[in-house]
Design a protein that fits this description.
Elements lengths: L8 E6 L2 E6 L10 H16 L5 E6 L3 E3 L4 H8 L22 E5 L2 E3 L1 H8 L2 E5 L3 E3 L13 H9 L1 H10 L3 E2 H6 L5 E3 L1 H18 L2 H13 L5 H18 L2 H10 L22
Parallel strand pairs: 2-3, 3-5, 4-6, 5-7, 6-8, 7-10
Antiparallel strand pairs: 1-2, 8-9
Length: 274
């Protein structure tokens, strides 16, 4: 709870799209264990809830997430561990078999950048600022960002962003492929939600889950393995999923599709604090 009154994460489900809002505006939505557990719990429940087809993550106020709360970092630098409890991987959003879109409404740094990069797409306000920050805090590239970021922007650009830990403004972020789209502040959330609602209404949840897993798995395989896996998935979706028949029928009958949602409980091994 924020100040003991407001939840640290807001949730709103509309037309198949779950909007998750980091809600620590008094701390600029900086990361702490309470927010981490609330966010990952919400992702877990979203995976199980067939009514949720697409997830949008944003921040309350004018910041997305500027990284770990400095109060937590100061205690950590002084030798106080964050927690002894097992934690989910910080890239947990990648495991959720539903599209996750980060609507980056302001500062995005450190763990905030990891959460944005762990999302499947990143839409941003045209005043957003991005930085890895780790090299300027005496830390490595945390939580496999050194693996994810090169796959988003390329190795050379990732080296630049990670080694310099410089601030990247929104226009450059769009140019280098770190974000997919830019919007004015008052258009970011409406446009992102409209995009997500179109996916929720017109795209098969089973197809989206399969495609998300294909893209991630194919980062570490050959084109031939990818081709054969696609053939296998075609067979599976045709024979075991009602979505193929519905997709064809809705197209030929010139009507909106009626795809059923999916329910998947994404269990992961808990990890000790670093």
């Amino acid at each position: 709870m924020t100040n003991g009154l407001e939840p640290v994460l807001l949730q709103e489900l509309t037309d198949g799209v779950l909007l998750l809002t980091f809600n620590r505006p008094d701390r600029n939505n900086s990361w702490n264990i309470e927010l981490e557990e609330a966010y990952f719990d919400a992702l877990y429940e979203a995976g199980k809830n067939p009514a949720v087809k697409v997830i949008v993550t944003t921040g309350a106020g004018r910041s997305f997430c500027p990284g770990m709360d400095m109060q937590v970092l100061e205690r950590s630098a002084a030798g106080t561990a964050m927690t002894n409890n097992g934690r989910r991987p910080m890239t947990y959003a990648r495991r959720i078999p539903k599209p996750v879109i980060a609507a980056v409404n302001g500062a995005c740094a450190g763990i905030g950048l990891i959460q944005a990069c762990a999302s499947d797409m990143r839409f941003a306000v045209n005043t957003a600022k991005f930085t890895s920050s780790f090299a300027r805090r005496g830390l490595p590239a945390e939580n496999s960002l050194s693996w994810i970021l090169p796959r988003i922007v390329g190795t050379g650009v990732a080296m630049d962003l990670l080694l310099s830990a410089r601030v990247v403004l929104a226009e450059e972020a769009l140019r280098i492929g770190l974000v997919n789209r830019l919007y004015d502040a008052d258009e970011l959330l409406p446009q992102t939600m409209a995009y997500a609602k179109d996916m929720a209404a017109n795209c098969s949840p089973r197809s989206m889950a399969a495609i998300k897993r294909q893209v991630q798995d194919d980062w570490e395989t050959t084109s031939e393995v990818s081709r054969k896996e696609a053939i296998r998935l075609i067979r599976v979706l045709r024979e075991q999923s009602p979505d193929f028949k519905e997709g064809v029928a809705s197209f030929t009958e010139k009507r909106p599709p009626n795809f059923e949602g999916i329910s998947v409980a994404v269990e992961v091994d808990r990890e000790p604090s670093p």
